[in-house]
TrEMBL record:
Belongs to the terpene synthase family. Keywords: Lyase, Magnesium, Metal-binding. Its cofactor is Mg(2+). Its EC number is 4.2.3.-. SUPFAM superfamilies: Terpenoid synthases. One of its GO terms (biological process) is isoprenoid biosynthetic process. GO terms for molecular function: metal ion binding; terpene synthase activity. It is an enzyme of class 4 (lyase). This is Terpene synthase. Pfam families: Terpene_syn_C_2.
Length: 380
């Protein structure tokens, strides 16, 4: 039996304990909230999932995502209707390519039928998905009379998010989202290549596609929509906006990859911690310390960029308020992701964490989310 690099790294990690401290101090000056619409939103989404997703496997997976809580913590200050939109966008992103074998591969002709090679099949799926997305975002002109076929049963979920986005977002916002979704799918193909070969990338290679596969930049494209106001277009050309987007993405990737390590041990190990161990030669504790310090630096970079952005619009109080709300929507992506990732993952590792103790002692403070401390209106 061939021993792969994944097997070797898994052997190094086996039996070790990842000690992850609480991140509450890291995020103490950022909003730690849950939407006041959470209970109502959860009822709406649960009802919609039961009606719109008829496949039992997909419905169970959708319910497991806990998308109402995801949306309510990522965007605690957004309106109820926009929480609904972002929830369906999130469900689509999580589900549409879940099962390649369930794909609606056309059989009409050899010209339309993709190769049986799995890598080429995934590439075909992404091309067809982008065609479907482009149509529903209203970016095809002239608009075809017929809707393109969704390449998978889950890809069709995109239309539930696209309709309100098409109505509320500018052509610039929708184009930006489309371009970033195209980049996301390209990065997914790169990741799939490593996973299918049972190989691990170098650390810089990993970051090169992981910042795409996270999907966080696509949420950045929806920042104005979720914040409820548009910022001056000139700001999108600044290094400060680029920094807010990039650093928020780093926040999400690091937190997700730290918290989900146990789950990755049973999969491909295509994750930040194993790749850092392999590429740097550091031990587990050293890797965790480095990543926690990276989170702190990243947070400070976001704060500095935010200050400079606000200074750019300081003479326009209305614009400053919109910019503040916009920046806040990225801060809550980071804090909300921490809470959602923590509650989403069954962590079987030892935690040197005050928050873990608190959760165990105060279960069920938020309806429908067992084991989460109260975050309503920023209390914690």
């Amino acid at each position: 039996m061939t021993v792969t690099i994944v097997d070797e790294v898994a052997a190094k990690l086996k039996g070790q304990t990842l000690h992850l401290p609480s991140l509450r101090d890291l995020y103490a000056r950022w909003p730690n909230e849950i939407s006041p619409h959470y209970d109502q939103h959860q009822k709406i989404i649960d009802d919609q999932i039961s009606r719109r997703i008829t496949d039992e496997h997909a419905r169970r997976k959708a319910e497991k995502i806990n998308v109402a809580f995801f949306s309510a913590t990522w965007y605690p200050r957004s309106s109820l209707d926009r929480l609904e939109t972002i929830s369906w966008y999130t469900l689509w992103l999580f589900l549409w390519d879940d099962t390649i074998e369930d794909s609606a591969i056309p059989q009409a002709s050899s010209e339309s039928q993709p190769s049986t090679d799995k890598n080429m099949k995934i590439g075909w799926l992404h091309q067809q998905a982008l065609r479907y997305v482009k149509f529903h975002l209203g970016l095809v002109s002239p608009r075809p009379a017929e809707e393109p076929a969704a390449p998978t049963r889950y890809c069709a979920l995109f239309k539930y998010a696209a309709e309100p986005l098409r109505a509320a977002c500018t052509i610039t916002e929708r184009n930006r989202l489309y371009q970033l979704l195209s980049s996301y799918m390209e990065c997914c193909e790169v990741e799939h290549g490593f996973v299918s070969r049972a190989s691990l990338p170098k650390l810089d290679e990993y970051w090169g596609h992981r910042l795409g596969t996270s999907g966080v930049h696509t949420y950045g494209a929806l920042g104005e929509y979720m914040a409820g106001g548009r910022i001056p277009p000139r700001l999108f050309k600044t290094a400060e906006i680029a920094s807010v987007w990039f650093e928020t993405n780093r926040q999400v990737v690091i937190v997700n990859d730290l918290i989900s390590l146990k789950k990755e041990m049973n999969k491909s190990l295509h994750s930040l911690v194993p790749i850092s161990l392999q590429d740097t030669g550091a031990d587990l504790d050293e890797v965790v310390r480095f990543l926690l310090e990276t989170l702190r630096i990243s947070r400070d970079n976001i704060n500095s960029a935010a200050d400079r952005l606000l200074a750019m619009v300081g003479e326009d109080p209305a614009a400053a308020a919109r910019v503040q709300n916009y920046i806040g929507s990225f801060q809550t992506i980071a804090t909300g992701n921490y809470w959602w990732s923590y509650t989403d993952c069954v962590i079987m590792m030892a935690f040197a964490s005050p928050i873990h103790t608190y959760i165990m002692q105060h279960p069920g403070h938020v309806t429908g989310v067992p084991g989460l401390p109260s975050l309503v209106n920023g209390s914690n």
